[in-house]
Write a structure and sequence with these properties.
This protein has 322 residues and is an alpha/beta fold. The protein folds into 2 domains: 194 residues, Formyl transferase, N-terminal domain (Rossmann fold, 3-Layer(aba) Sandwich); 101 residues, Methionyl-tRNA Fmet Formyltransferase, Chain A, domain 2 (Roll), CATH 3.10.25.10. A 7-stranded mixed β-sheet has the order 5-2-1-6-7-8-9. Strands 10, 11, 12, 13 and 14 form a 5-stranded antiparallel β-sheet that branches. Strands 3-4 form a two-stranded antiparallel sheet. Strand 3 and strand 4 form a beta hairpin. The radius of gyration is 23 Å and the shape is elongated. The termini are far apart.
């Protein structure tokens, strides 16, 4: 792969969810996008209706050429489509699939990726979520050259972004998407003059796909760590605990104001504590500190205040949540 001597003109875009739309919109406004590639339509929602990815729907509405291949490895048709359209460089953003080496070699300027972390930290599919779960105070966007590894390619551009201590993944994602849109347009415009910087493998950390179990509240953690996990898994899989074998979603949670996260409570983690004054939420002992559950959603029920749920289910001081 060789970087272009000047601004590129013909671009292919690989992306799938709504998160990638601001990046695609910014590229379309400045360059010629000759092909959009998204994942295939998938069942979604309660009715499991076949649903088109947001990027695919956006491309079709605007008459952009679209491909939704089921596989990439050995896909001669896709590779030939890139060549036939004269693609100079391809951009990926939240596409959701690993790109094989044979495909990466097709565009003369290769692929560049919009990654939502300060690489080499948080390589993988869920950098926003794990950044918050880990309690980081800064994140950012990295524009990198894509290689066959997992976010291991050299860095072209990088810019940091401060994280608000109360910010959730749902709130942080749009800010990172907007930053990524600005940076990728700059990268495409300066592709010939940017100096690729190899990543420091010693500093690398991983951010794998979340599982449903990642949303389970770890009561033995500190109240700050519980709150960070709640922030990171907002959206999916969401925070939850169980009582008598039934799952209860936690829609709003916060550390108890004025109590240090390291303060011991004298109660076993997960134990419901006497109401505070004023009683804003259901107080639960953490490994250190206390968290307040404000809004919950029991299995098969509508959302409700945590105190209302507790009264209706006989949950009071001394009850253990799992």
């Amino acid at each position: 792969m060789t970087l272009a001597p000047g601004p590129v003109r013909r671009v292919a875009f690989f992306g799938s969810p709504a998160f990638a739309l601001p990046v695609l919109e910014a590229i379309v406004a400045t360059f010629e996008v000759v092909l959009v590639v998204a994942q295939p339509d998938k069942p979604a929602g309660r009715g499991m209706r076949l649903t088109r990815p947001a990027v695919a729907a956006w491309a079709l509405e605007r008459g952009l050429p679209l491909e939704q291949p089921a596989r990439l490895r050995g896909n001669a048709s896709l590779a030939e489509g890139l060549r036939a359209r004269g693609v100079e460089v391809a951009v990926t953003c939240a596409y959701g699939k690993i790109l094989p080496a044979d495909l990466l070699a097709v565009p003369p300027c290769g692929f560049i990726n919009v990654h939502t972390s300060l690489l080499p930290r948080y390589r993988g599919a869920a950098p926003i979520q794990w950044t918050l779960i880990s309690g980081e105070r800064e994140t950012g966007v990295t524009i990198m050259q894509t290689d066959p590894g997992l976010d291991t390619g050299p860095i072209l551009l990088q810019e940091g972004l401060e994280i608000d201590p109360l910010e959730t993944a749902l709130e942080l994602a749009p800010r990172l998407s907007a930053l990524g849109a600005r940076l990728v347009v700059r990268a495409l415009g300066e592709l010939g003059s940017l100096q690729p910087i190899p990543q420091d493998e010693v500093l690398a950390t991983l951010a794998p796909l979340l599982t449903r179990e990642d949303g389970r509240l770890r009561w033995s953690d500190s109240s700050a760590a519980i709150h960070n996990r709640y922030r990171g898994v907002a959206g999916w899989p969401g925070s939850w605990f169980t009582l008598a074998g039934r799952r209860v979603k936690v829609l709003e949670l916060r550390p108890e104001a004025g109590l240090p996260a390291a303060a011991p409570t004298g109660a076993a983690p997960g134990t419901v504590l006497p109401a505070g004054s004023p009683a804003a939420g259901l107080r639960v002992a953490a490994g250190s500190g206390v968290v307040e559950l404000l809004t919950v959603q029991p299995e098969g029920r509508a959302r409700m205040g945590a105190l209302e749920w507790a009264r209706g289910h006989g949950v009071g001081p001394g009850t253990g949540l799992e």
